[in-house]
Amino acid sequence: MPRAKRGFKARRRRNRILKHASGYHSARSRLFAYAKEVVMKAWVYAYAHRKRKKRDFRRLWIARINAAARINGTSYSRLMHGLKSANIGLDRKVLSDIAIVDPKGFEQIVKSAKA
After folding, report:
1. Most Cβ neighbours (<10 Å): which of 44, 63, 67, 109?
2. Would you say 52 and 73 are in contact if contact means Cβ atoms under 8 Å apart?
3. What's this model's pTM, rounded to 2 decimal places?
4. What is the pLDDT of residues 49-61, one digit of tens each?
5. Which CATH number fits domain 8-114: 3.40.30.10, 1.20.1250.20, 1.10.1900.20, 3.40.50.2300?
6. Residue 57 to residue 101: CA distance in whole angstroms
């Protein structure tokens, strides 16, 4: 019985994995079996960290708002409660940007939240 080589589809699948593994060290970038392991793991990490990035940025924004709020004599939780009570609908991303770029404007926001 003649030897059956794998055809175009299998080569395309292997080359796709090896292309994603380029830049890895040693056999991980050259041998399909190793490359497949690390590429699959990399895809798992990429998926998880796309979700994680949202949490990390929210934590960063909250830390920045808290620091700016404490400079202006209040805490993060009191500021956010005051903003909600005053119907000021700024999200945390915008508040943190204002706190960095325009401290005087942030001071006005804190005063309106305290009132």
Report:
1. 109
2. no
3. 0.78
4. 999 999 999 999 9
5. 1.10.1900.20
6. 17
